[in-house]
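Q: I'm writing up a methods section and want to include an example of the input and output format. Could you take the sequence below and give the corresponding predicted C-alpha coordinates, formatted cleanly so I can copy it straight into the document?
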Amino acid sequence: MTVADDATGRRTESATRLPREERRAQVLTAAREVFVAQGYHTTGMDDIAERAGVSKPVLYQHFPGKFDLYLALLDEGIRSLIEALREALEATTDNKQRVRGAVSAYFAFVDDPDGAFRLVFESDLTNEIAVRERVEAADDVCSSLLGQVIAEDTDLPIKQAELLASGLLGTAEIAARRWLRDGDRIAREDAVELIASLGWRGIRGFPLSHPPQAT
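A: Here is the clean output for your methods example:
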Protein backbone atom coordinates (compact mmCIF):
# COMPACT_ATOMS: atom_id res chain seq x y z
CA MET A 1 0.00 0.00 0.00
CA THR A 2 1.13 3.55 -0.62
CA VAL A 3 1.04 6.48 1.77
CA ALA A 4 -0.56 9.87 1.12
CA ASP A 5 -1.68 12.90 3.11
CA ASP A 6 -5.38 12.97 4.03
CA ALA A 7 -7.51 16.10 4.45
CA THR A 8 -6.17 16.63 7.96
CA GLY A 9 -2.55 16.44 6.87
CA ARG A 10 -1.99 13.02 8.46
CA ARG A 11 -0.25 10.32 6.46
CA THR A 12 -2.60 7.52 5.45
CA GLU A 13 -2.15 4.36 3.40
CA SER A 14 -4.02 3.77 0.18
CA ALA A 15 -5.44 0.41 -0.76
CA THR A 16 -2.82 -0.20 -3.45
CA ARG A 17 -0.65 -3.10 -2.39
CA LEU A 18 2.73 -3.97 -3.85
CA PRO A 19 3.98 -7.56 -3.95
CA ARG A 20 6.03 -8.29 -0.85
CA GLU A 21 9.36 -8.44 -2.68
CA GLU A 22 8.70 -5.14 -4.46
CA ARG A 23 7.80 -3.49 -1.17
CA ARG A 24 10.92 -4.89 0.46
CA ALA A 25 13.07 -3.55 -2.38
CA GLN A 26 11.37 -0.17 -2.00
CA VAL A 27 12.16 -0.11 1.72
CA LEU A 28 15.78 -1.13 1.13
CA THR A 29 16.28 1.60 -1.47
CA ALA A 30 14.84 4.22 0.84
CA ALA A 31 16.85 2.99 3.82
CA ARG A 32 20.09 3.04 1.84
CA GLU A 33 19.46 6.64 0.81
CA VAL A 34 18.84 7.71 4.41
CA PHE A 35 21.74 5.73 5.91
CA VAL A 36 24.17 7.07 3.30
CA ALA A 37 22.98 10.65 3.81
CA GLN A 38 22.69 10.67 7.61
CA GLY A 39 24.69 7.74 8.95
CA TYR A 40 23.33 4.91 11.05
CA HIS A 41 23.16 6.57 14.45
CA THR A 42 21.21 9.66 13.39
CA THR A 43 18.74 7.70 11.24
CA GLY A 44 15.42 6.68 12.74
CA MET A 45 12.86 4.20 11.49
CA ASP A 46 10.51 7.17 11.08
CA ASP A 47 12.97 8.68 8.59
CA ILE A 48 13.10 5.44 6.61
CA ALA A 49 9.33 4.95 6.63
CA GLU A 50 8.78 8.50 5.41
CA ARG A 51 11.36 8.14 2.62
CA ALA A 52 9.85 4.79 1.57
CA GLY A 53 6.31 6.15 1.67
CA VAL A 54 5.07 3.49 4.08
CA SER A 55 3.83 3.40 7.64
CA LYS A 56 6.08 2.13 10.42
CA PRO A 57 3.91 -0.98 10.90
CA VAL A 58 4.51 -1.87 7.25
CA LEU A 59 8.21 -1.22 7.70
CA TYR A 60 8.33 -3.57 10.70
CA GLN A 61 6.58 -6.27 8.69
CA HIS A 62 9.75 -6.52 6.61
CA PHE A 63 12.46 -5.76 9.16
CA PRO A 64 12.20 -6.17 12.94
CA GLY A 65 14.55 -3.27 13.62
CA LYS A 66 16.94 -0.68 12.23
CA PHE A 67 20.00 -2.87 12.71
CA ASP A 68 18.43 -5.76 10.80
CA LEU A 69 17.67 -3.36 7.96
CA TYR A 70 21.25 -2.11 7.99
CA LEU A 71 22.62 -5.65 7.86
CA ALA A 72 20.36 -6.49 4.91
CA LEU A 73 21.75 -3.49 3.03
CA LEU A 74 25.31 -4.40 3.98
CA ASP A 75 24.79 -7.96 2.71
CA GLU A 76 23.31 -6.62 -0.52
CA GLY A 77 26.26 -4.30 -1.11
CA ILE A 78 28.78 -7.05 -0.39
CA ARG A 79 27.06 -9.43 -2.79
CA SER A 80 27.13 -6.78 -5.49
CA LEU A 81 30.85 -6.18 -5.08
CA ILE A 82 31.75 -9.88 -4.99
CA GLU A 83 29.67 -10.66 -8.08
CA ALA A 84 31.24 -7.76 -10.00
CA LEU A 85 34.72 -8.97 -9.09
CA ARG A 86 33.90 -12.58 -9.94
CA GLU A 87 32.51 -11.57 -13.33
CA ALA A 88 35.61 -9.48 -14.08
CA LEU A 89 37.94 -12.37 -13.28
CA GLU A 90 35.91 -14.89 -15.26
CA ALA A 91 35.54 -12.66 -18.31
CA THR A 92 39.05 -13.37 -19.62
CA THR A 93 42.08 -15.63 -19.20
CA ASP A 94 44.45 -12.70 -19.79
CA ASN A 95 45.79 -11.94 -16.32
CA LYS A 96 46.69 -8.36 -17.18
CA GLN A 97 43.07 -7.78 -18.14
CA ARG A 98 41.94 -9.61 -15.02
CA VAL A 99 43.87 -7.17 -12.86
CA ARG A 100 42.35 -4.29 -14.77
CA GLY A 101 38.89 -5.83 -14.44
CA ALA A 102 39.32 -6.21 -10.69
CA VAL A 103 40.35 -2.59 -10.29
CA SER A 104 37.51 -1.48 -12.56
CA ALA A 105 35.00 -3.43 -10.45
CA TYR A 106 36.04 -1.50 -7.35
CA PHE A 107 35.88 1.85 -9.12
CA ALA A 108 32.42 1.04 -10.51
CA PHE A 109 31.22 -0.01 -7.05
CA VAL A 110 32.45 3.22 -5.49
CA ASP A 111 31.07 5.32 -8.36
CA ASP A 112 27.57 3.84 -8.12
CA PRO A 113 25.22 6.70 -7.21
CA ASP A 114 23.31 4.59 -4.68
CA GLY A 115 26.34 4.92 -2.36
CA ALA A 116 26.29 1.28 -1.22
CA PHE A 117 30.09 1.35 -0.94
CA ARG A 118 29.81 3.68 2.06
CA LEU A 119 28.12 0.91 4.05
CA VAL A 120 30.82 -1.59 3.07
CA PHE A 121 33.97 0.55 3.15
CA GLU A 122 33.00 3.42 5.47
CA SER A 123 30.60 1.87 7.97
CA ASP A 124 30.27 3.66 11.29
CA LEU A 125 29.31 0.33 12.87
CA THR A 126 32.53 -1.66 12.60
CA ASN A 127 32.50 -1.94 16.39
CA GLU A 128 29.47 -4.21 15.98
CA ILE A 129 30.57 -7.84 15.65
CA ALA A 130 27.96 -8.69 13.01
CA VAL A 131 29.10 -5.80 10.81
CA ARG A 132 32.81 -6.39 11.31
CA GLU A 133 32.49 -10.09 10.55
CA ARG A 134 30.62 -9.39 7.32
CA VAL A 135 33.14 -6.81 6.13
CA GLU A 136 36.08 -9.06 6.98
CA ALA A 137 34.42 -12.03 5.28
CA ALA A 138 33.90 -9.91 2.16
CA ASP A 139 37.60 -9.02 2.13
CA ASP A 140 38.45 -12.71 2.52
CA VAL A 141 36.23 -13.73 -0.40
CA CYS A 142 37.53 -11.01 -2.71
CA SER A 143 41.15 -11.73 -1.79
CA SER A 144 40.55 -15.43 -2.35
CA LEU A 145 39.07 -14.85 -5.81
CA LEU A 146 41.98 -12.74 -7.01
CA GLY A 147 44.50 -14.70 -4.97
CA GLN A 148 43.63 -17.89 -6.82
CA VAL A 149 44.43 -16.16 -10.12
CA ILE A 150 47.76 -14.88 -8.75
CA ALA A 151 48.65 -18.29 -7.32
CA GLU A 152 47.99 -20.04 -10.61
CA ASP A 153 50.05 -17.51 -12.54
CA THR A 154 53.02 -17.25 -10.17
CA ASP A 155 52.99 -20.59 -8.38
CA LEU A 156 53.13 -18.70 -5.08
CA PRO A 157 51.64 -20.41 -2.02
CA ILE A 158 47.96 -19.51 -1.78
CA LYS A 159 48.31 -17.51 1.46
CA GLN A 160 51.02 -15.33 -0.10
CA ALA A 161 48.93 -14.90 -3.24
CA GLU A 162 45.90 -13.88 -1.18
CA LEU A 163 47.96 -11.33 0.72
CA LEU A 164 49.11 -9.82 -2.57
CA ALA A 165 45.51 -9.83 -3.77
CA SER A 166 44.37 -8.07 -0.60
CA GLY A 167 47.03 -5.41 -1.11
CA LEU A 168 46.03 -4.83 -4.71
CA LEU A 169 42.32 -4.65 -3.92
CA GLY A 170 42.98 -2.41 -0.93
CA THR A 171 44.87 -0.07 -3.24
CA ALA A 172 41.95 -0.12 -5.68
CA GLU A 173 39.48 0.65 -2.90
CA ILE A 174 41.44 3.56 -1.43
CA ALA A 175 42.27 4.99 -4.85
CA ALA A 176 38.63 4.76 -5.96
CA ARG A 177 37.41 6.56 -2.86
CA ARG A 178 40.07 9.25 -3.30
CA TRP A 179 39.11 9.61 -6.97
CA LEU A 180 35.43 10.04 -6.05
CA ARG A 181 36.26 12.58 -3.36
CA ASP A 182 38.33 14.62 -5.81
CA GLY A 183 35.48 14.86 -8.29
CA ASP A 184 35.84 14.45 -12.05
CA ARG A 185 39.40 15.72 -12.44
CA ILE A 186 40.40 12.37 -13.93
CA ALA A 187 38.09 10.28 -16.11
CA ARG A 188 37.19 7.02 -14.42
CA GLU A 189 38.67 4.88 -17.18
CA ASP A 190 41.94 6.80 -16.94
CA ALA A 191 42.00 6.38 -13.18
CA VAL A 192 41.35 2.63 -13.52
CA GLU A 193 44.17 2.35 -16.05
CA LEU A 194 46.60 4.10 -13.71
CA ILE A 195 45.89 1.85 -10.73
CA ALA A 196 45.68 -1.29 -12.84
CA SER A 197 49.07 -0.50 -14.37
CA LEU A 198 50.54 -0.07 -10.91
CA GLY A 199 49.11 -3.40 -9.78
CA TRP A 200 50.13 -5.30 -12.89
CA ARG A 201 53.69 -4.02 -12.82
CA GLY A 202 54.01 -5.34 -9.30
CA ILE A 203 52.43 -8.75 -9.88
CA ARG A 204 54.17 -9.51 -13.17
CA GLY A 205 57.50 -9.12 -11.38
CA PHE A 206 56.95 -12.52 -9.80
CA PRO A 207 58.26 -15.41 -11.89
CA LEU A 208 55.77 -17.91 -13.25
CA SER A 209 57.20 -20.61 -11.03
CA HIS A 210 59.46 -20.81 -8.00
CA PRO A 211 62.08 -23.47 -7.44
CA PRO A 212 61.57 -25.49 -4.26
CA GLN A 213 63.40 -24.15 -1.27
CA ALA A 214 66.36 -26.13 0.01
CA THR A 215 65.63 -28.06 3.16
